[in-house]
Amino acid sequence: MQLFVNDLTVIDFSYLCRDRGVVGESWIVDVILSGDLNAESMVLDFGIVKKQIKAIIDDAVDHKLLLPVADNHLIISDSERDNHVYVDFYPQQLASIHLQSPQCAFAEIPDEQITESAVTRYLQAVIKAQLPENVKGIELTLRPEAIDGFYYHYTHGLKKHDGNCQRIAHGHRSKINLYENNIRSLSLEKQWCNRWQDIYLATDSDAISQQQVELSKRGLQDLTADHQCFSYYAPQGRFDIAIKDNLEVVDCDSTVELLADYIARQLKAERPDNDYKVVAFEGVGKGAIGNV
């Protein structure tokens, strides 16, 4: 017997890619459970599926930076801070990326690349270990939102957030709708999605010097003069990142509300006589609207 739940949850995360650097992503999760009927004549109660399995998935990968631990471009080491980890990553075409974060901010995926199939295998193993004995199998489908138009991948962190959004390298795959004088502008949408493709969005007030950043010894040695460093303390611990390519520093926190306002202000500065409406998405099915 099989039980299925479509659109069980959406996982928002970032991952390290040897070709693209740090990439924000959002995947919708569908699940099928196979097994014998229990005493309630169910494979598993829908309430348990929607609550327990969703919680397992969220805890395993949501709002984390996924690390392809079999990739020889990646080095993971223990930080001098308790329960913190150093990450040093050397993409093929981009400058190196260096981080320090609490261990809970990372998920180690035992593959060379972060793909839907690799994350599926990882999650199936994590979930199966926590299911009742009558559940014999689990099938997950991880899929991006079908977007008829332009979209971008961004990574960021929110130091003021009490939850997992505080992690300095988590992200989203997002679409955007831009209106100029109440008329939707596909050319502006394309322009911004190209600008923010695989972007890391840092807040200017989080910037620190290379002398202040906490990284591994190797990471510190490999910093170039063009690497920019950002750091903050949040409830889960201290977060540091040093990055050079695919970076934009914004003059606000990177909440979706303020990013919508940031884009609107940038557009207004370019064409002051026009009015703009920005519908910015944060992953799937949620976002904020900015008007100037």
UniProtKB/TrEMBL annotation:
Family: Belongs to the PTPS family. QueD subfamily.
An example Gene Ontology molecular-function term: 6-carboxytetrahydropterin synthase activity
Its EC number(s): 4.1.2.50
Protein name: 6-carboxy-5,6,7,8-tetrahydropterin synthase
Organism from which the protein derives: Thalassotalea mangrovi
Source organism, top-level taxon: Bacteria
Pathway recorded for this protein: Purine metabolism; 7-cyano-7-deazaguanine biosynthesis
Coiled-coil ranges from the UniProt annotation: none
Family annotation (InterPro entries): 6-PTP_synth/QueD (IPR007115), 6-PTP_synth/QueD_sf (IPR038418)
Reactions listed under catalytic activity: 7,8-dihydroneopterin 3'-triphosphate + H2O = 6-carboxy-5,6,7,8-tetrahydropterin + triphosphate + acetaldehyde + 2 H(+)
Gene3D superfamilies: 6-pyruvoyl tetrahydropterin synthase/QueD
Signal peptide residue numbers: none
